[in-house]
Every structure is written in structure tokens, then in C-alpha cells.
């Protein structure tokens, strides 16, 4: 059975302790879902799939579902695949519809780094004290595991700090231009808090090499990873409406992936290779590529493997500019991919994202 994306919305993306510093993620998500329902006159929803990583726990997707204008009878599932959570939520919507279990689903994710709780290990746990970041691998309890994975990947591929500059600057520049893109703006829900319009808070049009060269390393004096080539922490919500009735975008293929957790940024590249192999398509067939550039090394990996396809990569800018609200970033990719395909009159779009613990997932959509 064919599965289609009919549309979607996201919030403007807020930075840690920025415009959403007092707004719980489930509240923000409920606002986006209600706007999505109104925008597309949605009358049928059989399920709600919600990515979330650093929330307060429980089935936060169900809590959000009860806060918005959905019937209490709509089941909700919270998905935690770390950074890949929202894209996996959309893929779960796809599989439920393709298998005939459901006909129509809202899927995406929510996140609030600003309200990320601090947790305490149980007294009987050999791990002691408080923590904010989950353990990703059996051998490593470091709260800096993702940064350390990026640093390892940088050295594995013999990348210098200067090699990352053009990708960082380019991301901010493309995102700045995209502020005037009517296709992208149609996927962003206007939100006002205390009389002030919310915006994508992290885009820096004047990002330059001089500024990047002054940024302090995050993992010791000799490390390359810094606040310029690694995205900050963010708040946001994003959802799409997926059903078995014909819509403007068809989900062509999905592909979860897992590999070496020590080099987690490679997840976007490897899941891309896997989905292209499974789908029978090549990068020549793809018109738009949206990778979650949580780190600039991810851009370098794309450039190394697909040097002739950089013009189709993150055409509207990426997470280094917009931000990375972990549990909803995969849905942001899908929305940006849809906007980019409309902008260039393209046919196939590919979204891919790496996750903590050496995971990743990819999705190919076809514009009808």
C-alpha cells in the first residue's frame, strides 16, 4: 500500500534558554499539532508517533496528544532513537499504514533542552550520582560521548579545523537566504510569546572564518570540535500528516541502520548508502538531500563521498544554522526536504540522520 505525506508544520527553533525557556515540549508540540489539523482540515487520525529524547519521561507523546484537539481514542507512542527519533517516528507511521494497521497518522517529535531534567541513579545502581545525558554504549558513560564521537570521526578522516569552515559558513548563509523562501515559510508555524514573534534563533548571517578561528575547543586544547562546528542545544516541535490517500509526497523507501558507536556521525552517510542500495536509486536520481548536520564533519563526509552533488545538499541550510532539537530534528529534515523539492521542482528527496550509540536512519520521498 502506498503511503503519502500530505503536509506538515514546525515551530521556529529556539536555542537553549531562549524564546521557549519556560514552555514544556508537550505544550509546544500540542500547539503545532492543532495548527497542522486546522491547516489541512484533518478529520482522521488513527495514531500519533512522537520522538523525544531529553523530556521528563513516560509516554510524553500521549500527554501531548491529550493536550491537543485529538480524540482521547487516538493512541500515542513516544519514540527514543536519540537524534533519529522523529525520522523513525515518521518511518513507523509509514510501516503502520503500509501494513494496513492504520490509515492516517501524525508523526514527528518534540524537544526542550531548556527544560531538560537532571536525573539521579538508583541507590543500587553501580553508576552513582546525577546525570542529564543517557549512557549510549556499555563501555562509555561520558556525558560528552557525542562530541567525542565527532572528534574521533574528524581524526579518522584526517579533517582539519579549516576544512570545516566553508561548510559551517555555507550552512548559515543558505539558511539566511531561506528566511525569504515562501515554500519553507509555509511549513513554519507563527508563534508569539508575550507579544514577541518567535524566530529561528540560531541563524548567523555574518558567520565567518575569523569568528570560527576564535572559538575555543570543547574537548581540550588540541581538539578540533567547538561551538562553531558542533550544533548547540535547542527547543522545538515538528510534525507531518501521513496517510494512505494520495498526497503531494509519497514515501518511497525507509532504512534504519546501526554501526560502530565510536564514530556515530557516520550514521547519516551509512544509512544513505544503505537506502540507496535497497531502493535501486543512485545519488544521480536524488534532487534534494537533507542530512542532519549535528557536526560539520557530517558535511565533509557527504562532500567526500558525493563531491559532484553538493548543490543538492542541505539547500536551505542545515542544523549548524537552524539548530538541533534532538527529538524533532528528523521531522524538520522532512519538512525542509519537501520545501526544497518544491523550490527546485525536484522529484526525489533523501533525508538521513545519525543517532547516538552508532545508529541512523534514512527516508526517500517522491514529489508527486
Fill in the CATH topology of the domain at 250-367. Peroxisomal Thiolase, Chain A, domain 1
Helix percent band: 25-40%
Describe the largest sheet.
10 strands, mixed
Mean pLDDT: 96
Encode the helix/strand succession as letters.
EEHEHEHEEEHHHEEHEEHEHHHEE
Characterise this structure:
- The chain has 368 residues and is an alpha+beta fold.
- The protein has a domain at 250-367: Peroxisomal Thiolase, Chain A, domain 1, CATH 3.40.47.
- Helix content is 32%, strand content 21%.
- The chain has 11 helices and 14 strands.
- Strands 1, 2, 3, 4, 5, 10, 11, 12, 13 and 14 form a 10-stranded mixed β-sheet that branches. A two-stranded antiparallel sheet has the order 6-7.
- Helix 1 crosses helix 2 (60-67).
- The two termini are 16 Å apart.
- The mean pLDDT is 96.
Concise synopsis of the structure shown:
The protein has helices at residues 25-39, 60-67, 85-98, 145-156, 161-178, 182-185, 209-213, 267-279, 296-305, 319-322, 329-344; strands spanning 4-10, 14-15, 47-51, 76-79, 104-112, 119-120, 130-131, 192-193, 196-197, 234-243, 249-258, 288-291, 348-355, 359-367.
Characteristic key phrases:
alpha+beta; Peroxisomal Thiolase, Chain A, domain 1; two-stranded antiparallel ribbon; 368 residues; globular; ten-stranded mixed beta sheet; 11 helices; single chain
Layout of helices and strands, plus pairs?
Elements: E1 4-10, E2 14-15, H1 25-39, E3 47-51, H2 60-67, E4 76-79, H3 85-98, E5 104-112, E6 119-120, E7 130-131, H4 145-156, H5 161-178, H6 182-185, E8 192-193, E9 196-197, H7 209-213, E10 234-243, E11 249-258, H8 267-279, E12 288-291, H9 296-305, H10 319-322, H11 329-344, E13 348-355, E14 359-367
Parallel strand pairs: 3-4, 3-5, 12-13
Antiparallel strand pairs: 1-10, 1-11, 2-10, 5-10, 6-7, 8-9, 11-14, 13-14
Helix pairs in contact: 1-2, 3-11, 5-9
Amino acid at each position: 500500500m502506498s503511503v503519502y505525506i500530505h503536509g506538515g508544520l514546525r515551530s521556529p527553533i529556539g536555542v537553549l534558554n531562549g524564546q521557549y525557556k519556560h514552555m514544556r515540549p508537550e505544550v509546544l508540540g500540542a500547539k503545532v499539532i492543532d495548527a497542522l489539523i486546522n491547516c489541512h482540515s484533518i478529520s482522521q487520525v488513527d495514531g500519533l508517533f512522537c520522538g523525544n529524547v531529553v523530556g521528563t519521561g513516560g509516554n510524553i507523546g500521549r500527554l501531548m496528544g491529550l493536550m491537543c484537539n485529538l480524540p482521547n481514542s487516538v493512541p500515542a507512542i513516544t519514540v527514543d532513537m536519540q537524534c533519529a527519533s522523529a525520522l523513525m517516528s515518521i518511518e513507523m507511521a509509514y510501516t503502520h499504514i503500509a501494513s494496513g494497521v492504520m490509515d492516517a497518522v501524525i508523526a514527528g517529535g518534540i524537544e526542550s533542552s531548556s527544560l531538560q531534567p537532571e536525573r539521579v541513579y538508583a541507590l543500587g545502581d553501580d553508576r552513582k550520582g546525577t546525570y542529564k545525558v543517557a549512557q549510549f554504549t556499555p563501555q562509555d558513560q561520558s556525558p560528552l560521548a557525542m562530541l567525542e564521537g565527532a572528534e574521533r570521526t574528524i581524526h579518522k578522516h584526517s579533517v582539519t579545523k579549516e576544512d570545516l569552515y566553508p561548510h559551517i559558513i555555507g550552512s548559515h548563509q543558505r539558511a539566511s537566504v531561506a528566511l525569504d523562501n515562501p515554500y519553507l515559510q509555509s511549513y513554519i508555524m507563527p508563534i508569539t510569546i508575550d507579544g514577541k514573534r518567535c524566530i529561528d534563533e540560531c541563524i548567523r548571517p555574518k558567520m565567518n572564518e575569523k569568528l570560527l578561528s576564535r572559538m575555543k575547543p570543547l574537548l581540550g586544547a588540541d581538539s578540533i570540535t567547538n561551538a562553531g562546528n558542533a550544533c548547540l542545544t535547542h527547543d522545538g516541535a515538528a510534525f507531518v500528516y501521513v496517510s494512505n490517500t494520495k498526497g503531494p509526497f509519497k514515501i518511497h523507501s525507509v532504512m534504519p541502520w546501526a554501526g560502530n558507536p565510536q564514530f556515530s556521525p557516520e550514521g547519516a552517510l551509512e544509512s544513505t548508502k544503505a537506502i540507496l542500495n535497497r531502493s535501486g536509486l543512485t545519488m544521480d536520481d536524488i534532487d534534494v538531500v537533507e542530512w542532519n548536520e549535528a557536526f560539520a564533519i557530517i558535511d565533509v563526509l557527504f562532500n567526500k563521498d558525493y563531491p559532484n552533488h553538493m548543490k543538492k545538499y542541505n539547500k536551505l541550510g542545515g542544523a549548524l544554522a537552524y539548530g538541533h532539537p534532538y527529538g524533532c530534528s528528523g521531522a524538520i529534515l522532512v519538512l525542509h526536504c519537501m520545501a526544497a523539492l518544491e523550490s527546485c521542482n525536484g522529484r526525489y528527496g533523501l533525508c538521513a540522520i545519525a543517532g547516538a550509540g552508532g545508529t541512523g536512519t534514512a527516508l526517500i520521498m517522491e514529489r508527486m
